[in-house]
Specification:
Elements (H helix, E strand, L loop, with lengths): L2 H8 L4 H17 L4 E5 L2 E6 L2 E8 L3 E7 L17 E7 L6 H12 L3
Antiparallel strand pairs: 1-2, 2-3, 3-4, 4-5
Helix pairs in contact: 2-3
Length: 113
């Protein structure tokens, strides 16, 4: 794991956002063998074979999680937004997150990277 990503998450102001970031980081590492992580554009990016697999973005009231290479994924209606090649879920405080679903989607999306 990259210390810069650890520091980024440690500096997140709202504890619920830091918890979500840690959980998302964990599922990325469980889902994508050999994943690399780095801070790019002031956000944690996760790469497989040098190609973007996922990114975490912090906003005032949300944690956004983007899955790249998403064109072939079957997604639940209304949960994700964005163009077909990358899909983003915006997570809010108190929202129930289906980490199992996110894990499966990450596995599928990154399998061809």
């Amino acid at each position: 794991m990259n210390q810069q990503v650890t520091d980024f998450i440690s500096n997140v102001n709202q504890s619920w956002q830091a918890n979500v970031c840690n959980q998302l980081r964990q599922i990325v590492h469980e889902s994508i063998p050999g994943v690399e992580e780095r801070i790019q554009y002031r956000k944690p990016h996760f790469l497989k074979n040098g190609k973007y697999a996922a990114v975490i973005t912090i906003a005032k009231e949300t944690v956004s999680f983007t899955i790249f290479n998403a064109a072939g994924l079957i997604l639940p209606d209304g949960l994700f937004e964005g163009p077909s090649e990358r899909k983003t879920i915006k997570i809010r405080d108190g929202q129930t997150i289906d980490y199992e679903l996110l894990t499966k989607l990450l596995e599928q999306a990154s399998s061809s990277l």
